[in-house]
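[Q] Does anyone have a clean structure-token version of this?
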Amino acid sequence: MKKKAFATMMSMALAGGLILGGCSSSDDTSKDSGGSSSDKTVVKMMHLWPEGSSNAQFTIVDDIIKAYEEENPDVDIQTEILGNEQYKEKVKVLSASNELPDVGITWAAGYMKPFVDGNMFAPLDDIVQEDNFVAGTLDAFSVDEQTYALPLELNITPVYYNKEIFEQNNLEVPETYDEFLNVVETLVDNGVTPITLGNKDRWTGSMWYMYLADRIGGPETLNNAINRTGTFEDPALVKAAEEIEKLVEMDAFVKGFNGLSNDEAKGYFMNEQAAMYLMATWELPNYTTTPDVDQAFKDKVGYFKFPTYEGGKGDIDSYVGGPGVGLFVSEQSKVKDEAKDFVSYLVDEWGKRSVVDAGVIPATVVDTSNGDLHPMYIDILNDLGKATNLTLYADVQMSAGVADVHLNQIQALFGGQTTPEDFAKTQEEALAAEK
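[A] Here you go.
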């Protein structure tokens, strides 16, 4: 996914932006999947994967609907399908008149909360099977410890690396942060750019900071600062900023990183001019299945988990990431039980098919023992199955105004225009001012 898709998607909670597989489209299609008849229970669904612009996702959902109707002949799933932007606008109109579909698509966190506060989404705790979901994914769709949507998609953020560059410089995959710093130092000494980073877009640098905050302070430290049970001036969060400062001083990042977009920075990795690239799993097709990427390059790409920090409270199976969209059931639905049953079925079947058929990592734990999957997908999915935590992107957790402060401070920190202490203080003040 490209930068704008991420910036809006991972600010999905704030602006309801583009999502993996949910690109903007002018398509607007209504479809009766089951040949409605008066003796059937009709469940109305709206989604945002038109056949023309999101064919893989459209096909998955269409096939799941047909299978569900075959297994439940008394139920007729009727779909209305719109492009991303049209979907958002229609949901806004329908919610204003309490006419949401029985089943629909929502983004997480801040985007979803007004619907929950307005009593428009039904709680789904009665159909949640927590063990089926990757750790942390349900949290983004929960308010006051109740789940109001079931997540479909998931992105986590590994460090991709060029295996040939590592071999040429006698380097091994680092498991600890000290080993990682040694990798950076060795590459710099040998005239190789260690890391490519497009920090003109700011959220890219935030992911580096979030991982260091997690590994040093544990996953709750940054979350607590944002939800106001803690402070952004926590020593662990200041220390994470100090480590960013140190990486910059070591020349760890590509020259001019604060002026490069993510797309521009990605080119350095794709062209083998940088050894490492921290980015979410929507990049996986470029290194596995995308036909217009040279196979010789794909064979050189591996990934590793962000290393552990000596003396830190975080562990290596904790990830920075976030879910894409989820499925809601309308609180006003007259067929709530049938709608919930269908949502549960769709989420389960989506998890079985989405990786192979659409290159989408699902929010559910995937059985990798069957199916024709690229080894890197299998490794990622197996890692996800062992995940201990998933920390939602910081700017998604924050309100729009505070998120902008956070992202500006990230860019200033990487650019040497603020100190770690002032970096933390400015964000603490912005968060405190909201309450």
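[Q] Thanks! Anything notable?
[A] Residues 36 and 127 are 26 Å apart (CA to CA).
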